[in-house]
């Protein structure tokens, strides 16, 4: 498979890319800075990736999306999947206190992410189809005290991704929405760890399985599907009382 | 945060991909936390340690020489998975693959092939470290050799290991050819082990509860990489790994169940000799197939006592040591004997020529007393213990065992870290560091 990944230098995106590399896929790594991309590209090559190329693409800068995806297509001739795992994150307290940061998080995680997916959609459909895997979050499933602002962007993103899958699956574009629960990555370092925390390598196995099967929605670690099922059922007056 | 055996302290592990940034101001770096005692735990005054396990990039590999440069958080499991299929393997494998490269260096780990290939340090070419001053330095046998040798087996106390360059071993196939022999008593076991020295990998399991005529009985296991013509063409499949879901209740572990376990382990092979092809994982790291196996010891946890009894002391000393165990009881599921080759280059490297004896000890009220008794014996015969496994040894015992080696180590450490910024719970307990 030829896969484009935005967000492969760290966290869950990096582990997904590693699994793809170990089975010999060809990768186009997109990212803001080329230096860390080149460093992680070496890791993927040693693991067995058929080919790895890098290109600059900043999720905060929509002008970079089209050229980066076009570069990927001209490099490999054909792109089978686009994986988007990059995002911004901050705690509710920090976002409430810092409007600049809030603006950046909402803009990148919602607006720019959707615009990037639209660029990917056009190009995948033009080539007769493909797969789009985007990382949303369980934080978008319910209005919660602890992740309200970050969760709002992810709720909007989940909504968009679902509609995209409904509309274009018949035309060959399969959209996979990934909703990770709490995963021990650099992004969540320093946060209080809830039960059912997962590791990025296990998450990556779930994501790659969903990518291969074309599953429309994947909660990972799997137990979070159950956790969020219950959370979604809770009435508002209960939700208002719990600290989750 | 806890050590593998269950010693715990209230502290956090800060994880991140950028280890150089993460270790800035850190008192200690922790890998996968598989050292049994307090080696990976911070001193009482510190609230956090840097966790290296996300800093695990493969940086450079030369397929002609097998030289690999990788970040210190790379797990041995990943390294084996990636390189096994390409015909390369770690030059030395400890009894678990859930360890990091940095941890392997800091413990200067040894394995079933110690009598032939030495410790991991022998295969390490250079290290990139963040030392206490905050500087990032590269050390090797020619560049800052004092730091390099003190870091091999230095328990992470000389600086934060960021990158490791080592030479992997070429292997003829991806499978192991092994024989396992029942040994009916102590003499048969020891002679069996010594006569197997031409095998590249050997180890003995010993039934510490057997007494009388069957005292010292056990199973001798010896192996080598299978030749390409003997081995199956496919790769070993990753094993099914069940998890022990919670701590076993205290009553599950008593002398009766341990006796039953030992009996079963001894008789698990119907024939006195079994041989054939096995996967490297099940050969080198048999316990890895059960996640969180430590929970079988219940909430009190366990520790391990591993010592090396020098060759000069003779097999009589090994027999006397096992005799203490047989008489005292109180040991756990596992007691492993292995002959060691020449001493490693690391200033505090554990193995030296002789017999290494490792045994699990469930934590009980009398465990401290047993460890003291075993250590007194080790001192008497001129041996030493493996700090990575230790939780209960006393500083005065370790000072006598290590003697001048410890002075040399502490001198190098003081030269690089005069204020003792880099410390661990272990260094406070054993080396008298400020808390």
Commentary on this structure:
- The complex is a heterodimer of chains A (244) and B (435).
- Chain A is built from 9 helices and 7 strands.
- With 244 residues, chain A is α/β, with parallel strands linked by helices.
- Chain A has one domain (2-239): NAD(P)-binding Rossmann-like Domain (Rossmann fold).
- A 7-stranded parallel β-sheet of chain A has the order 3-2-1-4-5-6-7, with helices on both faces.
- In chain A, strand 2, helix 2 (34-47) and strand 3 form a beta-alpha-beta unit.
- In chain A, helix 1 runs parallel beside helix 2 (34-47), helix 1 packs across helix 7 and helix 5 (99-126) packs parallel to helix 6 (148-168).
- The longest helix of chain A has 28 residues, at 99-126.
- Chain B has 2 domains: 12-171 and 404-431, 2-Layer Sandwich (Uridine Diphospho-n-acetylenolpyruvylglucosamine Reductase, domain 3), CATH 3.30.465.10; 176-230 and 252-398, FAD-linked oxidases, C-terminal domain (Vanillyl-alcohol Oxidase, Chain A, domain 3, 3-Layer(aba) Sandwich), CATH 3.40.462.10.
- An 8-stranded antiparallel β-sheet of chain B has the order 14-11-13-12-16-17-15-18. Chain B has a 5-stranded antiparallel β-sheet with strand order 4-5-9-7-8, with helices on one face.
- In chain B, strand 4 (58-62) and strand 5 (67-71) form a beta hairpin.
- Chain B is globular, with a radius of gyration of 21 Å.
- The interface between A and B is medium-sized, with 18 and 14 residues.
